[in-house]
Structures are given as structure tokens and as C-alpha cells.
From TrEMBL:
One cellular component (GO) term of this entry: cytoskeleton
The SEP domain, residue ranges: 212-276
Organism: Octopus vulgaris (Common octopus)
Keywords from the named record: Coiled coil, Cytoplasm, Cytoskeleton
UniProt-recorded name of the protein: UBX domain-containing protein 11
Length: 470
């Protein structure tokens, strides 16, 4: 009976020989150390090869190390064998499929492809029916975009679907904006939003009918204006989404949060006009500030200040009606949290806007002109000669009171200050008299009204004198 022994490769033989040599040297060195510690007359028995016998403990450790090495090798070989078996099985299946396809007749291939095409068509029909139930239509992908995607290649010259293409990041418009459809749908939406319907609003005196104010939408060739907002180009996705909502018969989704019940839209049709942004033009002259100083730096772009009549006829941003107080308050938040404190915004502004305005007091100061006029009217025999009289309005520093003074052309600024001091409250702070335009301080008491340019009418302003010593 022959026993088939496993064939050991050359590498494993060399490894085993190396391990034997190393272990033999280790055993020899250990035995030499033990022999030095023992008695001199005691000799160890030697083997036929001349090496001392190993102890049982050292032999067991050597066998354990060799056994662990063999187990690790066996595990690696098993894993490699399993991976090779899987690869062989996969290749056998591929070969079987290829042989089957080669053995099939052309009629069978056509029948298989026809069956697959029919199944795909049924799936497409079911998906279209599903979209139609929700009022949607499958539009598909434009051919131009598909060609561009096919032309997209990587650096190696082959098509790479994972490579990002910038031009494909911008979605192409799937629908064309039709202003005719938008105008017709807005008319229907206005009926649903209550156009022409009056609501009863309670007032202090009773009640009144109030109509809903429509929001303005201006249509241009390249964009729109909505409410009081800026110009919105058709290339903006938010603008197209708003117009698509109207084309599909829905109220714009961006206005639903502000007007949950809808609002009528007033359409201004300028579809044949292309809106262009007008550059802002600065004042070309030298300005004067409120504190009396001058800005000597001339403004730039003076050539843009003069515009021809043709440029003025060009349509720009339409004039939108100003928001009413109720509309402005409705847009404000209820409260704002700042530094951990809740601040009531809407209530405070509502009380400020709806509070009755403070009445302004008009004080007519009686001067010598009024007295002479009364005297001349009482004496009819005396010839009436109308003197040169200037009507001067003086606004107090707080703006609550306005003084109306009639003075002669030859009266001075000192006379004006005397009239004002007699009608101002006692212990009032010192003040300065300023002319509005041009803005200058009238501090010369001997200057006449005519010399100061306050004839025939003028408006003056009082201002607290910060340089005065109280």
C-alpha cells in the first residue's frame, strides 16, 4: 500500500531547513549555558550528530510555533482557493450565456427584443396614465441637451457619465412663456380672488364698503414687475416658476404666504417693449449740507443728467401705488427677539402710524404794519399809500409752531427778533435765525429785510444756538 505524500515546494523546504538551523543553534546555546552551571565532572550524553538532547519543554514550544505557521498558511490557501472557484463559476456562466446566444437563431433574437420592447411600452403607458391622473404631462429631454451629453468626454477621450459638465447644470426651459395664456388665466383668477366684490368694513361712524386693492403686474419682453418689487428677468428660475404657476391656472406660490386667500392682479401689457436698466445719475452741481457746510467736490457723470425726449419716452419701471398703512403693517413681523428680549414691532408701529397727528399751531404776530393798515382804513379822507410789505413765515425749532409776521422792507433782523421774543415762551433757550435757501445764518441785527433777500415772501427756521452760554 502506497501512501501519497504531499509534494512540498522548494520554498517551503528552504523555510523548514532555515527554521531547523535556527532552532538548533538556539538549543545549543541554551544547553551550553546550562552545562556551565552544572558540575564539571557531569557530561551530557550526545547524539550521533554531536548535538545535545533537547528538553521536552523546548520541543513542545518548537512544535507549537511550527503548527501555528502551518495553520496560517492553510487559511490563506483556502481563501485563495475559494476566490478562484467563484471566478471560475462566474466565467462558466458567461461562457454558457454566450454559447446560448450564438446558438439562437435570428428569429428568436428578434422575438426576444420585441417582447422586451412591448414590456417597456406598457411601463411607459402606465407611467403616463399615472401622471395624467394628477394633471401632469411627461415632456422629456431636449435633443440638443442629449447630444451635448453624448459629446461629453473625459480627458482620455471616452465618455464619462460621472464627469461634471457646467453647461448641463443650467436647466433648459421646458415650457415657453405665453403672455396670452397668462392674461386669460389672470382674468379667471381675479374672479376667484374677489375682483369687484366689496366687503363690509366697520368704522367709527358705522360701516362702509371696501374693495380689494389689486396688485400690479407689468409684463415686458424680457421680464416682469410684480407688486412693488424690482425688475425680474425671465432667465430667473423664480420668475419662470411664478409665470408657470399662472399658465397652469394656479395662483403664484410665492404670494400664497402673503395673500393666502388670493389677490386680484392688474396687468399692464408691455410685451413689445424690452426693459433696460437706467443708470443712476448724480446731481451735477455743488451741494449744500444741512449744517451749513458746502461740498466743493462736483458730482460725476454730468453727461447723464440731460436726457433727450426720446429717452424719456422709453418705458422704465412703472409707477406703483404706495402701500397703505394696513398693507405695510400686515407685512411686519409680530415680534422680534434681540439680546434675549421680545420686542413688539407690529403693535408699536401700528400705534405710531394710526395715532392722530399733532396739530400745528399758527401764530399771527401783530406788527406796526397791521396797526398802520387799521388806522388808514378808519380815516377815509387820508390818501391810501400801500407800503412795501414782506410776508415772513418763521418755523420754531421744534416744528410745532409757525409764526406769521408782516414787516416792511426797511425793517431789520433785530426788529424781527424782538417780535419773536415777545411771543415765545418765557425762559426759552437762545436761538439762531436761518434762511432755508440759500441756507445761511441771519445774525446781523442791522441788516434790513430787503438786504437779506426776504422779500416779498420768505420762510425762516429757528435753530437752537449751541454756542450760547446759559
Amino acid at each position: 500500500m502506497k501512501v501519497n505524500l504531499p509534494i512540498i515546494p522548494d520554498e517551503e523546504k528552504e523555510t523548514n531547513n532555515l527554521i531547523d538551523d535556527v532552532t538548533a543553534d538556539m538549543l545549543k546555546s541554551l544547553l551550553d549555558k546550562e552545562s556551565r552551571r552544572s558540575l564539571p565532572n557531569v557530561n551530557f550524553p550526545s547524539t550521533s550528530t554531536g548535538s545535545p538532547l533537547c528538553s521536552e519543554k523546548e520541543l513542545l514550544s518548537l512544535m507549537a510555533s511550527r503548527l501555528s505557521t502551518a495553520e496560517a498558511r492553510l487559511k490563506l490557501q483556502k481563501e485563495e482557493l475559494m476566490s478562484k472557484e467563484k471566478r471560475i463559476l462566474y466565467l462558466e456562466r458567461k461562457v454558457h450565456q454566450l454559447e446560448k446566444q450564438c446558438n439562437e437563431s435570428p428569429d428568436e433574437v428578434v422575438a426576444s427584443l420585441t417582447h422586451q420592447c412591448d414590456s417597456f411600452q406598457n411601463q411607459i403607458r402606465e407611467m403616463e396614465d399615472f401622471l395624467y391622473d394628477y394633471g401632469l404631462i411627461w415632456v422629456g429631454e431636449a435633443r440638443g441637451r442629449r447630444k451635448r451629453s453624448l459629446r461629453r468626454k473625459s480627458s482620455t477621450g471616452t465618455y464619462d457619465p460621472c464627469l461634471w459638465s457646467p453647461e448641463e447644470s443650467i436647466p433648459e426651459p421646458s415650457l415657453k412663456v405665453d403672455y396670452d395664456v397668462i392674461i386669460e388665466n389672470i382674468k379667471e383668477l381675479n374672479l376667484l380672488a374677489g375682483e369687484g366684490v366689496a366687503n363690509v368694513e366697520s368704522t367709527k361712524d358705522g360701516a362702509r364698503l371696501k374693495y380689494t386693492e389689486p396688485a400690479t403686474m407689468t409684463l415686458y419682453k424680457n421680464g416682469i414687475f410684480l407688486l412693488n418689487g424690482p425688475f425680474r428677468s425671465l432667465s430667473d428660475p423664480a420668475t419662470r416658476r411664478c409665470l408657470y404657476d399662472i399658465m397652469e391656472g394656479y395662483f403664484p406660490s410665492e404670494l400664497q404666504s402673503t395673500y393666502p386667500e388670493g389677490i386680484p392682479l392688474k396687468v399692464i401689457d408691455n410685451r413689445n417693449i424690452e426693459y433696460t436698466m437706467q443708470p443712476s445719475s448724480a446731481f451735477p452741481g455743488i451741494g449744500q449740507l444741512l449744517n451749513g457746510t458746502k461740498n466743493d467736490t462736483p458730482c460725476l457723470h454730468t453727461h447723464r443728467t440731460l436726457r433727450s425726449a426720446s429717452s424719456l419716452q422709453h418705458m422704465t419701471q412703472p409707477h406703483e401705488p404706495r402701500l397703505s398703512a394696513d398693507q405695510f403693517i400686515r407685512k411686519l413681523p409680530g415680534c422680534v427677539i434681540k439680546d434675549g428680549n421680545s420686542i413688539e414691532v407690529k403693535k408699536s408701529i401700528e400705534s405710531l402710524l394710526k395715532s392722530p397727528p399733532k396739530p400745528r399751531q399758527l401764530t399771527i404776530i401783530e406788527t406796526l404794519v397791521e396797526k398802520e393798515k387799521c388806522t388808514m382804513s378808519q380815516s377815509p379822507t387820508q390818501a391810501h399809500v400801500e407800503p412795501d410789505v414782506a410776508n415772513i413765515r418763521v418755523k420754531s425749532e421744534t416744528g410745532d409752531c409757525t409764526y406769521l409776521i408782516k414787516m416792511k422792507y426797511l425793517d431789520t433782523i433785530g426788529d424781527l427778533r424782538v417780535y419773536l421774543d415777545t411771543h415765545r415762551p418765557a425762559f426759552s433757550p437762545s436761538y439762531k435765525i436761518l434762511s432755508t435757501f440759500p441756507r445761511r445764518v441771519l445774525d446781523d441785527p442791522d441788516a434790513t429785510i430787503e438786504e437779506c433777500g426776504l422779500v416779498p415772501t420768505a420762510t425762516l427756521v429757528l435753530e437752537l444756538d449751541s454756542t450760547a452760554n446759559y
